[in-house]
Amino acid sequence: MPSNISKARLHKAFNEGRRSAASETAENPYDNPKLRKLWDLGRAQQRAGELTTPIPALEHGETRAQRAPQNPPGTKAASRPPPRRRGPPPRGRGGPFRR
What we know:
This protein is an all-alpha fold. It contains three helices and no strands. The protein has helices at residues 7-20, 33-48, 75-79. It is elongated, with a radius of gyration of 26 Å.
């Protein structure tokens, strides 16, 4: 069964794991189980010295993977102010007492 994750994305997760091998406190930034596994695999193989190829450089404009901030449930609605009316009230043709 083919994966919905592109090969480039899978390679990026593996290479991110390799880059993180130098840091003792690096945290896996991926929530997807397959990407987490590849990150851990790249980190383990780099630390063990099993990979002889150099770690690929980041592409121009590419950034290191970072964990997305997770908000606890219920904070989105509580932090959002109520909607505001814009402009003056509408002026129609009048009410029931107007001729």
